Amino acid sequence: MADMMTVQIVTPDGLKYDHHANFVLVKTTDGELGIMTNHENIIAPLDVHEMKVRRIDDDSHVDWIAVNGGIIEVQNNLITIVADSAERERDIDVSRAERAKLRAERDIQEAEAQHRIDEVQRAKIALQRALNRINVGSK
Question: Which cellular component terms (GO) are annotated to the entry (predicted)?
Fold first, then answer.
């Protein structure tokens, strides 16, 4: 079927997502990238973002996935994302993500007060990931 793409997301825990789609929206380090069938082949680094996958069965059937960075490869209607972690909207524990957000905010304040720049950066990344999970999990 020429009007669809296969979307696969792989993490160190294995294959996290494998479905057919007719549209995918991701956020690369250079900005948003909308992908439709027969898109030119590319490889690009991804930001922490909420990925949108419009499934082929119905235009209103959209999967939202919290992707924490990684790499996207588009080749011949196969989209492969390799990421440290990725969670579908239905699999996100929002209360756990809220606790991670609070913990990251506290860690940022403590690290800034003690001028520990590396720890500030790590905590900011943790905060960004928690916020991403909250946004996706609340859809």
Answer: endomembrane system; plasma membrane; proton-transporting ATP synthase complex
